[in-house]
What does this fold into?
Amino acid sequence: MFTGIDEVDWASLRHAYGSAEDVPGLLRGLASADPAEREVALDAMYGAVHHQGDVYDSTLACVPFLFALVECVQVPDRGGLVELLVSIGREGEARADTDGACAKAYTAIRAGAEAFARLAGDPDTGVRRAAPGALVRFLAEPARVLGLLRERITVERDDRVLLALTESLGLYVRRHPGQTAGAVALLTAHSLPPYGPGLRLAALGQLAGCAPDRLPTDLVPTVVRLLRERSEQRPCRRAKPDCPGTDTLVGRLRRLRPSDEEGSQLLRTLHSALDDRVADRIALLVGQLSSPDPTDRCNAVWMFPGLIREWRADCSEPVALIGAQLGTEDDRLREAALSALDGLLDLAAPAADHLDALVTSRPDLWVRRWERGAPNLGTPVKVLAQCGNARATPVLAQLLAGKVVPDDLGRVVVHLGAAAAPLAPALRRRLGDVPLDSPETYERAAPLLWALEALGDAESVPEVLRLLLGMPDGVPSRETVVDSAARALGAFGAAAREAIPALRGLLDTGSAVAAAGALWSVEGDVSAVLPVLVRELTSGRHGRRAAAETLARLGQAARPALPELCRMAESEDMWDRTAAACAVWRIGGDPEIAVPTLKAAWAQNPHTRLTIAACVVELGPAGAPLHDLLRAEVSSPRRHQASLGGYGTRDIVEDEQLLRACRQAVGDV
It folds into this structure.
C-alpha cells in the first residue's frame, strides 16, 4: 500500500498548516487496526490535506496511496476513504480551470477511476455505497457506467447500497443529458411495485430532479403512503456502536447524524428536487408531520426550515403541526421542533398554544444555563414572546423579579408590543442596576434599552441618562451603549426634555449622529442638529450613512444638506448611495436623482430593498415611481435574499418586514 511513500519529498510539499512532512503518518494511520487512530487520521486529512475542500500539492501526492488503501480489503472503513477521493475529485473538477493543483488532482482521480468499477462489487458495504457516485463522476465511459449501475442494482441486496445506486442513476442523468433513456427507465421501474418503499422513494426523488414528467400524478399521497410503509418495516433503531474516544470533526458529525439518516436523506432529495413546487412540499410535510412514527415526524421538522427560509407561502398548517411535537416525551423531537420555530417571530403564531402549554408545564425550561457566561432565555419562552403572544408576559415578569435575569430577555420584549407594558417598571429597575464600569455593561444594558425604547417608556429617562452620562472611558462598547441610550431618549420624544443638555453635550463626540437624531425628536431644533449632521456627511467616518438617514427625517428643514447628499449619492459604496438617494428624495421631493440610483441598488443588492421600501412608505404617493418594484416584490414567491444564499431566520424576518413595507406602500397585489 505504501510502496514509494518514503521517496516522496513530503517536507517540500504543503497543506493548510504548512509543511506536509506529517502526511505519511496520517496515511499510515488510515490503515491502523485501532478505530480511534483511523478516525484521527481521517479527521486530519480533511482538516489539513483537504482543508475546507482545498487541494494542495500534498493532496495530489496522496491520491495514489489513497487508491492503494481503498483496494486493500484488509483496511477497515474504506468507504470513508472512497468518499475522501470523491471529495478531492469533485473539488478538482469544479476548480480545474482556475487552479493547477485542482486540475491535476481531477486528472489523477479520473486516471485511477477503473478502481471504482472494481469497488462497486466490494465485500464491504460502505465501499459499495461510496463507489457508484465515484463511477458516475470519474469513469469516462458513460455506456459502461450505466451498464455497471444496471448490473449492481440488479444483484445488490443491501438497502443502503441500493439507495446509493439509485442516487447515482439520477446523477448519471444530470451529467449525461444526451444518454438518459436507460437510466430514466431504471428509475421509473424502481419507483413502482414490487420494489420496497425505501427504494421507490429514492427513485421518485431522483425522477423529481431529472425526469419530472415520469412522476405519478398523485405524487404526495404516494410519497406519504410509502413513508409510512417504510416506517412500519424499519427495524427498531439499534444502539450506535461506541465511538472512539476522540473529539474529531468526523466523530462529532457521526454523532450528530439523525437517528434515521436514510429517511432524512430521502426527504432532502425529494424536497430539493421539488424546489418551487411549494404547495406539494407543504402537503408532503403535513403528511409526514401527521405520521404515527416520531422519527418520521422528526425528519419532517428538520425539512421545514429549508422551505420557509426560501419560499413565501402559507405555512400555518405545518407550523401548527410542528408545535404539536412540543408535547412529545421524545426529547430529540421536541428540541427539533423548538429549533425549527426559533426566530420565526409571528410566523410561529400557529404554534402558540403548544408553546404556552410547554412553558406552563416545564418551568425548568424557562432559562438555559451554561457552564460559562450569563444564562439565556429558554427557547420555549423566547419563541412564545417572539410571536407576540401576551401569555409570555407573566413568565418574563417572574424572571425579571428573580435574582439572575437572562441577558437576552430585553431582546424578546420588543416583539410583544403593548402586551409588554406591565414589564416596564421591572425593566427600568434592571437598567438602573447595570454596572457602569463592567466589561459586561453592553450585554446587560443594550437589550434593556431596546426594550424600553420599543415601549416608549418615558419614565425610564433617569435610568437611561445614568448610562448616557455615567460610563467611564475605556469600558468595552461604551460608544455603542451611549448610542443605544440616545436612541431610546429619542423614542421618548418631548417627554425626555430633561435629557436635552446631555444630548447636546454629545454633539462633538463619536455619538454625534445618534445624539443629533435624538435631539431632533426631543427638541426639534434644526439649528442645533443640521450643522452636526452635515459635518458627519463630510467626515468620511462610518456615521455618514446614519447621518443621511437622520437628515431624511428632518424633511425640508434639511435642504441645506442637499448638495452634499447629492455628492454622496454618487459614492462608490452602494449603501452610502442608497441612504443618500433616499434622503435627497425625502428632503427635496425630486425623484430625478433618487429613482435611477435606488432602482440600480434594488436590482444589484437585495439587501438594500428593505431600506428602499421603507423610504417609499415615508414618501407616500410621491413614491409612485418605485411602486412597480414593490408590486413585483410582493408578487414574487421567493424570499428576496434566497438568491444570495441567505437561509437564516434573520433573512426570514427581514423578508417579512420587506413584504409588510411593500404592501403598506402599494397595497396587496
